[in-house]
Design brief:
mainly beta; seven-stranded mixed sheet; four-stranded antiparallel sheet; 11 strands; globular
Length: 119
């Protein structure tokens, strides 16, 4: 089970940190990722971390940082310099393989989402 938290409303230029608490399996054995879906748009991959190596979609590079805390069994997404275009529902996902961020359907487990609104 994956449970996201940390979303909210923030002004442009601000920061938020999203959390995704995992239960039932250790995050250090999984590939994990953050996705987002804005109203009227398709879900898109934001960042992925396989073991310790992160990858990001171009639009968030230099602003977002994905990380895992193995002791807390939690995935994080630190979001800085937020833009209005970052407004979306954010979801965490996990898989024992490591699908590409473009292959959304290949990710096995999903959280329920947390809303981020930037104005």
């Amino acid at each position: 089970q994956l449970v996201e938290s940390g979303g909210g409303s923030v002004q442009a230029g601000g920061s938020l940190r999203l959390s995704c608490a995992a239960s039932g399996y250790p995050v250090n054995t999984l590939c994990m990722a953050w996705f987002r879906q804005a109203p009227g748009k398709e879900r898109e991959g934001v960042a992925r971390i396989a073991k310790t190596v992160p990858t990001y979609t171009d639009s968030v590079k230099g602003r977002f940082t994905i990380s895992k805390d193995n002791a807390e069994n939690t995935l994080y997404l630190q979001m800085n310099s937020l833009e209005v275009e970052d407004t979306a529902m954010y979801y965490c996902a996990a898989d024992r393989n490591c699908p590409h961020l473009r292959n959304i359907g290949d990710w096995n487990s999903w959280g329920q989402g947390t809303q981020v609104t930037v104005s």
